[in-house]
């Protein structure tokens, strides 16, 4: 039998194929392991632009609202420079919010308070809620800029007349007397009785009208008449008889916004009140920079089919919060040696209002150690408040940063965008945007810095949370 002759061309092609396959097995995509496991970025990109650049992705969706950073150039509040908090203030406010979340989850809240005796003391900003949307209220509708918050249930805005106190806001204060669709809610109604679960405070009663009050963990509060009104999200999305708080006594450094939209899990939250149309389904994308816009969308239309879902955990049942199960973290493509029990002991929630992701101390120490090792060639500088791993990049034009991913139950891997790894005000002090809790038993919180550019999907009807990359710029 004649021997088979193998051509040199076939051998070359075969060797090339083997090289490519072996390279991918070893993680050397494009011939560089660093291209897989690191980001290389310009240092200047760590600081936001002073000019607004609206994202096209935010404007081409139905039932969708543009999302802007409260103090970025895309917000009308940006004009009021005096009300812009310092980064130190933001981090202190963030800590107050985290303490409040931990208190609620531990069921250590104070007993219900009579609305009529709500303490009239000035507080801090409501958590750190730093993303806002604009909605219409009343007939004819009046546009209002409101913080959106997945950790709160009731929607409220300041109302005229301000019987006791109203803080300064950018929009004109809503006047019920000028709306043809406004009506107060009766003290004996089911909706009024539902306020205790939504606010943690028993409703009051004034001349047969239901009185709501809500007090936040940092002592800021809103109180007034509980009412019904027409809510306009878009020209096609109009909801009559929407329950909301018409605040006539409001204190705290709310920084110019007109109030708050509650996106939590109680039956008085916006997702629950609009469930007949949207099926308790909404999603958002937080922009990578305050100079860009994201979006908040209600209903199934337009969400990415590449979104991967993880089941809501049971640890947050009976609260406003959305619980998730963290199973691991990777730095530079390598899974960190953190015992699964570290995450299961604490549990976790995802929160749109917490700025910095909080981790059990054991998990954070491991993350910090791996990150510092990967960044060892860059000079460390002083800590900023609760952020203890900070770098001075003032002598660099570009830097190389290890990629970070979170893993959730169901095998869901969520890569953190490079803009979600750092918290910075100046290139001379750029800090790792994670912090440890006080104790391993305190719940982890997946904060909004780490959510940047992700399409985050809340499917309350099916009891799951989804994540997709590249949701917005």
In short:
By secondary structure, the protein is an alpha+beta fold.
Topology:
Layout: H1 8-25, H2 33-37, E1 38-42, E2 64-69, H3 87-105, E3 131-137, E4 142-149, E5 156-158, E6 183-184, H4 190-193, H5 195-199, E7 204-206, E8 209-215, E9 221-234, E10 237-251, E11 259-262, H6 270-273, H7 275-278, E12 281-285, E13 294-298, E14 308-311, E15 322-324, E16 326-331, E17 334-335, H8 340-346, E18 348-350, E19 357-359, H9 361-374, E20 380-381, E21 390-391, E22 398-402, E23 404-408, E24 412-415, E25 422-426, E26 429-432, E27 434-436, E28 444-446, E29 455-459, E30 464-468
Parallel strand pairs: 4-11, 5-10, 18-28, 19-27
Antiparallel strand pairs: 1-22, 2-3, 2-13, 3-4, 3-9, 5-11, 6-9, 7-8, 8-9, 9-10, 12-13, 12-29, 14-30, 15-18, 16-17, 16-23, 20-21, 21-26, 23-24, 25-26, 29-30
**Tally of contiguous helical segments:** 9
Residue-averaged pLDDT: 86
Extract low-pLDDT stretches.
Answer: 1-35, 108-128
Cα distance, first to last residue?
65 Å
Major sheet: size, sense and barrel closure? 6 strands, mixed, barrel
- Strand element count: 30
Query: Helix share of residues?
Result: 10-25%
- Return Rg in Å: 24 Å
Large-scale geometry? globular
What order do the strands of the largest sheet run in, or round the barrel if closed? Answer: 3-4-11-5-10-9
Q: Kindly estimate the percentage of residues that lie in beta strands according to DSSP.
A: 25-35%
The SS-based structural class is alpha+beta
